[in-house]
Amino acid sequence: MTSLRNSPGEPRDAYLDAARACILDVGWRRTTLTEVARRAGVSRMTIYRSWSDMPTLLGDLMTREWTGVVQAAVAAEGADRPAVDRLVSGIVGTVRVLRENELFVRIVELDPELVLPYVLSRRGRSQDLILSLTEAAIRDAQAAGEVRAGNPVAIARGLLLATHGFVLSAHTMVDDLASEAELDAELTTLLTRSLAP
C-alpha cells in the first residue's frame, strides 16, 4: 500500500482532493485515474506514479478522510474530564461525524460495496488507527483505575464492533418512535457501561 506520510499542501493532497471531488460528483464506479489527473491538472502518468489503480487511490483517500475525522474527535476531548467520559464522547463524536461526512455518505449511497470488505472481510488502516488510539486510552485509564479490568485489545475491538451499526445502520432505526439523538444516547449508555470499572 502507498504510504500517506506527506505534509499538507504536497501534490499528493491535491491529487486526493481531485479524487474526492470526482467521487462526490459521479461516484466511485465512474471515477477513473484519467479523470483524477484531469481534475488535478496533471498528466495520467503523474497519478499512475503514485497509484497503480483506483482501489489503491481509494484506500489512501479513505484513510486520509477517516483519519482526519478521528484526529479531530480526539483533539476535541477535554483532558480534565474522567477517562470514560473522554473515551465515550470521542467515540460517539466520531460516529456522528462519520455519518454526516459527505464522502462517506456518497460512498454508502452510490457504492456501498466499497464498505463491505471493512465490515465483513478485513480491517482497514483507519480501523487500525482507531483501535490503536482506543487501546492506548484504555490502557492508560486502566492504570489509573478509571476503566474496568480486561484485555484492552479485546475491549477496544468490542467497542469498534459495537459502533459499526451506529455508523452504517442508524438511519434504518430512525423514525417517529426513535430519533437519531436518542439512538446516540443509547450508544453513549452502552459504551459507558461497557467501560465503567
Task: Provide a concise account of the structure shown.
The chain is built from 11 helices and no strands. With 197 residues, the chain is mostly helical.
How would you portray this structure in words?
The model is unreliable at 1-8 (pLDDT under 50). The chain is mainly α and 197 residues long. The chain starts with 10 loop residues before the first helix and ends with a helix. It folds into 2 domains: 7-52, Arc Repressor Mutant, subunit A; 58-195, Tetracycline Repressor, domain 2, CATH 1.10.357.10. It contains 11 helices and no strands. The protein has helices spanning 11-26, 33-40, 44-50, 54-75, 83-100, 102-110, 116-121, 125-143, 152-168, 170-173, 180-195.
Shape: globular
Going by CATH, the architecture of the largest domain would be: Orthogonal Bundle
Structural class: mainly alpha
Main sheet?
A: none
Order of helices and strands: HHHHHHHHHHH
How confident is the prediction overall: mean pLDDT?
A: 90
Named CATH topology of the largest domain: Tetracycline Repressor, domain 2
Rg from Cα: 18 Å
CATH homology superfamily of the largest domain:
Tetracycline Repressor, domain 2
Residue share in helix: over 70%
Give the uncertain stretches in residue-range form.
Answer: 1-8
Give the CATH level 1 class of the largest domain: Mainly Alpha
Amino-to-carboxy terminus distance: 39 Å
Query: What's the count of strands?
Result: 0
